[in-house]
Design goal:
With 446 residues, the protein is mainly α. It has 17 helices and two strands.
Length: 446
């Protein structure tokens, strides 16, 4: 032949090439039928919708529990009475109002008539200095009141009364005697002013007795956008109970419909975590926009403290969902067939095997517990997983640390099951347990 090969060699080469072509054709995956592609597409759509609903579920849960529950709202804002920025803002507001009603020349009205011209001239020269001295005195007494337990009681009671206005501001519902004015929720500081007046009189500033009853407000919540967002917020509040369930059901349906369920579960869990983390980032941006849009007379530090207190539970929920998504994705990946996941599982089992071998050499035995655990190991594992899920679902207000704690508790329980499921007689002995067999002793002998 031209290439120097014999006829038999040429036939052998042709047969070899044919076999290689057949093997390559066999390794090629068959084309997906249209029905399979539609099923995968539907699974992807359901998972995406569930991931989109995850951050909305967080807002809905917060709206239902924070805005709809008066006791929880009061518990949220009550610590603000001890916040230094809020106390400073209230003290400045009360001091300004009190000073507007104090007549400095009237402080000396009991002076003898012949001395009045000289004192009037003196007051005219001191003017600002005298006013600053009186202001400092009033400011100090006001700070004492604001830092007292009495102010905390006033603050708590006032916020309990205005909860209906907060509900109305954010959801459009509510009503009653408290009204929403200029898209703002305000606290009347009249009780604080009355206590300041009494404290001034007791301290010798008797002119404070002539201050009439004053009603002035402290803004808790104010935004020009409240009217535009309250309709959607109301819908989220109504969906607070069902929206999280709908999101979970959609994601679960998408995972079950997927051809690669484990990969779909990992993608869905990470998608939920990322979508919810974006909500947290958006909340930070909205905070900056909200504070920037406040009127000039509103204290920025106090408004920031109030905003942070109101969304504290929402931020906790965001961190909780993000951590839950990461834990679920990690669990699904670790139980998969990947090479790195297999290496992690091998390290896990090797560590438990070494611990079991050490306990075996020390004479520790599981007795009848070991065989029972080996027999029902699969059932025990699923019961432990179900118990962890049930504990999370029944937890009143779970946090990210609750998720981490439950995950670690589940890992510990699974490690105990793996430890007990090992055969006392060396069904899966560690290296140390096999050493006596090399010297002629029975396997696993101490």
């Amino acid at each position: 032949m031209p290439d120097g090969t014999t006829g038999s060699e040429g036939r052998d080469l042709e047969q070899l090439q044919a076999r290689i072509a057949a093997l390559e054709a066999r390794e090629q995956p068959p084309p997906r039928p249209p029905r399979h592609r539609m099923r995968s597409a539907l699974a992807a759509v359901l998972i995406v919708i569930g991931c989109v609903l995850a951050p909305l579920s967080a807002v809905a849960t917060w709206a239902e529990s924070e805005v709809g529950d008066t006791d929880r709202y009061v518990a949220t804002v009550a610590p603000l009475a001890s916040d230094p920025d809020v106390q400073a803002a209230v003290a400045n507001r009360v001091t300004n109002v009190v000073m507007e009603h104090i007549d400095l020349p009237a402080l000396l009205e009991d002076v003898a008539p012949e001395d009045r011209p000289r004192l009037d001239a003196l007051i005219g020269r001191l003017g600002g200095a005298l006013e600053n001295a009186v202001r400092s005195f009033v400011q100090a007494r006001t700070q004492d009141i604001v830092a007292s337990d009495a102010f905390q009681r006033i603050w708590t009671e006032a916020n309990r009364r205005i909860h209906a206005a907060v509900d109305k501001a954010l959801t459009g519902s509510g009503g009653g005697a408290i009204e929403l004015t200029d898209n703002a929720v305000k606290i009347d500081l009249a009780p604080v002013i009355e206590q300041v007046k009494q404290r001034l009189v007791n301290e010798g500033l008797t002119i404070a007795e002539k201050i009439p009853e004053i009603h002035t407000d402290f803004t808790v919540l104010q935004s020009e956008d409240v009217g535009r967002v309250k309709t959607g917020f109301r819908l989220l509040q109504l969906a607070g109970t069902w929206l999280p369930i709908v999101a979970v059901v959609l994601i679960a349906a998408g995972v079950l419909l997927s051809a690669h369920r484990r990969k779909a579960l990992v993608a869905a869990a990470l998608g939920v975590a990322v979508a919810t983390a974006l909500l947290g980032a958006g909340l930070t941006v909205f905070r900056l926009i909200y504070l920037d849009s406040l009127p000039k007379g509103v204290s920025q530090p106090a408004a920031a403290s109030v905003f942070d207190a109101l969304v504290r539970f929402l931020r906790t929920t965001i961190r909780n969902i993000v951590m839950l998504g990461i834990v679920v994705a990690l669990a699904a990946w670790l139980t998969g067939p990947g090479r790195h996941a297999g290496l992690v599982r091998q390290l896990w089992t090797s560590g438990i095997a070494a611990t079991r071998a050490t306990a075996h050499r020390a004479g520790l035995r599981t007795g009848p517990v070991g065989p029972w655990v080996r027999r029902y190991r699969t059932w025990i594992t699923w019961v432990l997983v179900a118990a962890a899920v049930l504990a999370y679902v029944l937890w009143s207000y779970p946090t990210a640390w609750v998720v981490v704690g439950l995950a670690l508790a589940l890992l510990l329980a699974l490690a105990i099951v793996e430890f007990l499921a090992r055969d006392d007689e060396g069904a899966a002995p560690g290296p140390a347990a096999r050493e006596p067999a090399a010297t002629g002793g029975p396997p696993g002998a101490p």
